[in-house]
Amino acid sequence: MKEKLAKLIDVKSIVTLAVTANLIFVIDYVMLTGATVDDKVFLLFSNVVTMIVTYFFTKKNTETKTVE
Question: pLDDT per residue over 20-37, tens digit each?
Answer without folding.
Answer: 888 888 888 888 998 888
